[in-house]
Amino acid sequence: MTVLQTRPTLTPEVAAETSAHEPTPELAASAVGNGGRLLRFALANLTRRPERFVLSTLGIALAIMAVVVVRTLSIGFAGSSSASLSEVLHGAPLWVTPGQGISYNAQLSAMLPDGPAPQLTVPPGWTALHTVAGAWNSSAGELAIYGNARIADGTVILSRSTANKLSVSDGGPLKVGTTDLTVSVTGNSPIVMVPEQVATAVVGSKSWWTVMPPAALNGRLDLGKLLSAATGLPTSTDPANKPSGAGLIYDTAGGGGSVTFQQRFTALYAGKVTGSMLGMVSNVGLILGFIIAVTSFLASVQERRREFGIMASIGLADEVLYFFLVESAVVFVLAYLGGALLAGVAVLTLVPGVASVSAWAQAAGMAAAYLPAMAIVGALVPVHRLLQQRPVSLLADAT
Question: Containing domain of residue 103, as a range?
């Protein structure tokens, strides 16, 4: 015996609502397999309320922008401080800093001492280089200047970009303070390198020491302790420890472990950005963006209760989840792209000395990790909770 299956007859009211909101039969049949039709369906639903769509996307985009800006500055700050540390050490494993400490000047992209270096007498066979450092008020504005005995008398070393700022060329003259020097253009460091006495005349006695052990001691992990025993200065392998008293010996080769002194140093300075007021503002912005997303999706779900009830009553409950997931994905992807691009324009325009394209790309990639969680909680949870109700209840509540 053959059993005929017939589709239940809808009341005129439900039939009218179905004609207005129900997806076409071929779209319903291929809801899962046809991404193009799902996308067109999602765009059609989003354009029903263009104001809500634009405002929701803009709110999330601004939150993404805040996060990307802070992360870009953090990564750029870490990269430039790492390069500056390499400029300071020049391969030396020991760095003797003044008791007043060392600070990183992001505007000048240079490490600068906050006081004079302690008196230092190293053991026989050890070599110590005294470097005077500070900010020089040049004709092109403030520039970082280092002076030590490695720079030949009468010479100033500049990068090509710094030489262009000062409108000088290789082999030409440049007056630093009251001293006439000959320009040597080499490298890409933003720091002006001069003889020690010239730097002292310009910035005073603020300085540090870098110390090299004898060749026989190369590779040892207790160099800081050896120099500390000989000089009486404390030593540390942790850049988070601040100098006090007469000064501090940073042992950049000691400590062991898989994380180097330079990596800990750059992480420390990067953390200052994310832990600052700017970082807190970005976190608040991200929370507000999430609230905007959840509020928007809840309102959209509530408005479409009857539509979802009709779809659920004819066996398309799973398709509702797919439809809404695609809609939320469109909103989040557009918001992410807009926020990331706005952040890139902002940081590369306002702080080009700190931020870079690579730093922005890394920050944008890190911000993308927030999107799945925001989409799941903000979009799927509301509609999933809605579909836990019986279709009859959805249709009755929406009348």
Answer: 93-251
Looking at the fold, whether 33 and 121 belong to one and the same domain comes out as no
Do 282 and 324 belong to one domain? yes
Q: Facing residues of 62 across strands?
A: none
Residue 85 lies in a domain: no
The answer to whether residue 322 sits within a structural domain is yes
Residue 195 in tokens: 């003889």
- The β-bridge relationship of strands 235-236 and 247-251 is parallel
* CA dist., res. 321 & res. 13, Å (int): 25
Number of domains in the chain: 2
**E strand intervals along the chain:** 94-98, 102-105, 110-113, 127-138, 141-148, 155-158, 173-176, 179-185, 192-195, 207-212, 235-236, 247-251
Residue 7 has pLDDT above 60, yes or no: no
For residue 33, the model assigns a pLDDT of 47
Residue 316 scores a pLDDT above 70: no
User: Picking from 136-140, 252-256, 375-379, which range would have the lowest pLDDT averaged per residue?
Assistant: 375-379
Tens digits of per-residue pLDDT, 369-386? 877 777 777 667 776 666
What DSSP assignment string belongs to 271-314? HHHHTSHHHHHHHHHHHHHHHHHHHHHHHHHHHTHHHHHHHHHT
pLDDT at 397: 56
Residue 287 sits in the same domain as residue 214: no
- Count of alpha carbons within 13 angstroms of residue 249, beta-carbon side: 26
Q: Of residues 105 and 397, which shows the higher confidence score?
A: 105
Euclidean distance between CA atoms 188 and 222, whole angstroms: 33
The pTM score is 0.67
Q: Are residues 30 and 155 in the same domain?
A: no
Contact 146, 200 (CB under 8 A): no
Residues 111 and 58 reside in one and the same domain: no
Higher pLDDT pick, 358 / 233: 233
Is residue 70 pLDDT above 50, yes or no? yes
Among residues 266, 231, 236, which one has the least CA distance to residue 251? 236
228 in Cβ contact with 186 (< 8 Å): no
Residues 45 and 113 in one domain: no
Average pLDDT, rounded, for the chain? 80
In a domain, 268, yes or no: no
Residue 123: pLDDT over 70: yes
Is the CB of residue 118 less than 8 Å from the CB of residue 245?
Answer: no
* Residue at 82 is within a domain: no
> Do 237 and 103 sit in the same domain of this protein?
yes
Residues 104 and 240 occupy one common structural domain: yes
